[in-house]
Amino acid sequence: MIRLLRALGRLTVDGVWQVGFATRFLFVMLRHSGPSFARFSLTIRELYFSGVLSLVIIVVSGAFVGMVLGLQGYDTLQRFGSESALGSIVALSLLRELGPVVAALLFASRAGSAVTAEIGLMKATEQLTAMDMMAVNPIARVVAPRFWGGVLSMPLLAAIFSTVGVIGGWFIGVVVIGVDNGTFWSQMANSVDFREDVMNGVVKSFVFGWAVSLIAVFQGYDCTPTAEGVSRAITKTVVYSSLTVLALDFILTSFMYIGK
Amino acid sequence: MNRAMLDLWVGAFVALGFAALMFLAMQVADVSSEGTRGATITLYARFDDIGGLKVKAPVKSAGVVVGRVTAIRFDPNVYQAEVEMRVSAAYPFPKDTIAAILTSGLLGEQYIGLAAGADVEMLEDGDRIQMTQSALVLEKLIGQFLFNQAADGGGK
Amino acid sequence: MTTHPDIAEPVVELRGVDAGYGERLILSGIDFSVRRGQLVAVMGGSGSGKTTLLRLVSGQLRARKGSVRVFGESLEKISEKELYALRRRMGMLFQFGALFTDLSVFDNVAFPLREHTDLPESMIHDLVLLKLNAVGLRGAATLMPSELSGGMARRVALARSVALDPELIMYDEPFAGLDPISLGVIGQAIRKLNDALGAASILVTHDVVESLSIVDYVYLVSEGKIVAQGTPDEIRASTDPFVHQFIHAEADGPVPFHYPAPPLAESLLESEVAR
């Protein structure tokens, strides 16, 4: 019992310590973010690695999620004779939830883990220390551009995910099943609000981008500089960012749609 | 990977991202048909009961969307709901137009239907539609039906 | 530029320094100095605090007690900016080179030049090839670090650490894991670079034979203290039992073979009782 309590206490203390350290790290990084924008080519490189290279997985998953929504949505709706609402179902679920959340989860496991691995390996092989010794701040030169690359690509990836998903849903609903094309789009346009649904989705994915990128660079920078430490840091990045994304999604959703 | 290739790919990625956002805004949310663009006039109408009508519900005439509901208030002086709607200025309606709250399908959303009258004068910005027809509330209908049945039965 | 070591100004000077991480004290009471033109070796077993000494000099670690002065400036309350200004005058070679794996050999050597100077690309090109030529790897400029052998990577890293013509060069175990030929090549390169640049160099190593043949002065570190110092000849001739054990690589002596433990018989008995 005592041991259990002690374990709980330790977990809490460590957790709070980590969060505090990550917050301090965020401020240090923001302070050293000048070069990420002054020398934008640094960030462009990271946009390529976290954005462009995530495109394939985002597009493929988006298409499948949209097609599944089309099938499931149709199956459920036709029981009530309201197949005409298929467009709204597909678009609303993608824009409000699935687009930002699934894209963020995929982003965490594709780009986030890669960033952690890269920074972790640079730390383990003393490349970060070497840079520091050359009077080049590794946070400004290595960490901050990767953070901003992630923050900037996340909303774009989420928008692409939703768009491909809507097209996937349209393909199944209209082309394969035969729901009326005009009804599909007009019902969708009627129920989707630009500010309420589209912009809130963008805000969500922006917040997720911050969270996932911060966790990824922090875990990489904070890892134990050994092969084992790096692999543990990668696991932590995926687990922590997935949990953070889901928790943040709940909080954001309750503020955006329910708390009014 | 050389610099030019990198810039090209990232440029394409960013363009694709913004194209996706545009698609979501224009095609999915259809910002342009929300009556926020183009000239509109504001009309008012009072209803005894608006049922499940919501802000942003469409205003239709002959099934075509001509505007949107922009605000719903309760007027304590007359104990009625006051609905503010914005209708495209391109479609002028006569003064004696009837506004009714209708439902699309059995379980569909509610909207305002405008049935044009025959007046020569047209509604102008800020005018009130005098003739209105409230939403049909299912419970009331059923209640009425049962009442009528009972009345009929008693008469026999 | 090369002056006689005894009258030259000290580039690095440590007086009565204590240092450590967290609650652990690694170094205590260290007095240490390096003069311009000198190549100084710091030798000792693994875990004796040699690398910690380098971290003190390079400002990665602050001293608990005593004073650390580099280029005449105290490192105790130095700001990050001032420290970076000092580090531009330093070069450091890491144990395994620490080359940037995503950059080619050429770009690795060019990195400090591009970050700290506004030289035109053509001039950087010439400077990089000169530095690579000095370590005999001009032909490898377009290779990636993953295509290099351990010895070659070390030489590229050496070229990179002297790219800005530093006045103080630090070597952290430059001989670790090298074959005898590469080892000799690196050793000669270190000596030549120091003389050519008129710099001061600190060589942290446990390779006795190679270092004694190239350095001017030796510090022997054991358990966080400096236990012996002198020129290579003095060290070789020393009768001190510790120095003797270290130089001749004997397994047992003042540095015990066994980590402190109760006698073996006792430990065996204990597990017997526990059962």
Topology:
The complex is a heterotrimer of chains A (260), B (156) and C (275).
Chain A: H1 2-31, H2 34-38, H3 40-51, H4 55-77, H5 86-124, H6 127-133, H7 138-177, H8 181-191, H9 194-222, H10 227-258
Chain B: H1 3-28, E1 40-47, E2 58-61, E3 64-75, E4 80-88, E5 98-103, E6 110-115, E7 128-129, E8 131-133, H2 138-155
Parallel strand pairs in B: 1-7, 2-6, 5-8
Antiparallel strand pairs in B: 1-4, 2-3, 3-4, 5-6
Chain C: E1 10-21, E2 24-35, E3 39-44, H1 50-57, E4 65-70, E5 73-74, H2 80-87, E6 90-93, H3 105-116, H4 121-134, H5 150-161, E7 168-172, H6 180-197, E8 200-205, H7 208-214, E9 217-222, E10 225-230, H8 232-237, H9 241-247, H10 264-274
Parallel strand pairs in C: 3-8, 3-9, 6-7, 7-8
Antiparallel strand pairs in C: 1-2, 1-4, 4-5, 9-10
Helix pairs in contact in C: 3-4, 3-5, 4-5, 5-6
Structure report:
With 260 residues, chain A is an all-alpha fold. Chain A has one domain. Chain A has helices at residues 2-31, 34-38, 40-51, 55-77, 86-124, 127-133, 138-177, 181-191, 194-222, 227-258. Chain A is elongated, with a radius of gyration of 21 Å. Chain B folds into two domains: 1-31; 40-143, no CATH class. Chain B is 28% helix and 32% strand. Chain B has two helices and eight strands. Chain B has helices at residues 3-28, 138-155; strands at 40-47, 58-61, 64-75, 80-88, 98-103, 110-115, 128-129, 131-133. Chain B has an eight-stranded mixed sheet with strand order 7-1-4-3-2-6-5-8, with no helix packed on it. The longest helix of chain B has 26 residues, at 3-28. Chain B is elongated, with a radius of gyration of 23 Å. The mean pLDDT of chain B is 81. Chain C has one domain: Rossmann fold. Helix content of chain C is 37%, strand content 24%. Chain C is built from ten helices and ten strands. Chain C has helices at residues 50-57, 80-87, 105-116, 121-134, 150-161, 180-197, 208-214, 232-237, 241-247, 264-274; strands at 10-21, 24-35, 39-44, 65-70, 73-74, 90-93, 168-172, 200-205, 217-222, 225-230. The interface between A and B is medium-sized, with 35 and 30 residues.
